[in-house]
Amino acid sequence: MNETLPPCPECSGTYTYEMGALLVCPECGHEWSPASPEPQGDAAGSRVVKDSVGNVLADGDTVTVIKGLKVKGSASGIKAGTKVRNIRLVEGVDGHDIDCKIDGFGPMQLKSSVVRKA
Questions:
Q1: CB proximity list for 40: less than 8 A, separation 6 or greater
Q2: At the N or C end, where does the chain have fewer CB atoms within 10 A?
Q3: How far apart are CA 105 and CA 24, in angstroms?
């Protein structure tokens, strides 16, 4: 058995082993196919999120809500013009790609199409 298996692309662990057609890292549990090279590192950073007018958003930005939003369980909702500070960009559910905390409402997720960079 002279073949050496490549290190894990996630954690660079050297104790990889074969399991059927996949390679497995016992240190982090990552599974990958040796035939297809995986994008490393910059794949998550290459995703571009833009606001309603086309400005590129980044983690930590301050945005302004451009239209009134209804919130389940709240009688008033979020008014247009509400500033949201220190946003985080996430892979959200149903198009919600901004994770934030709004004063008076708490943590929630917003769609980038309803905000404008402040």
A1: 9
A2: N
A3: 43
Tokens 């290459």, located at residue: 46
Judge whether 92 and 85 are in contact, CB under 8 Å: no
- Token pair for 118: 């402040």
- Alpha-carbon Rg for the chain in angstroms: 21
pLDDT band at 36 (very low <50, low <70, confident <90, very high): low
Beta bridge partners of 117: 63
pLDDT in tens, 39-86: 554 444 567 899 999 999 999 999 999 999 998 888 889 999 999 999
Say how many C-beta atoms besides its own lie within 10 A of residue 16's C-beta: 21
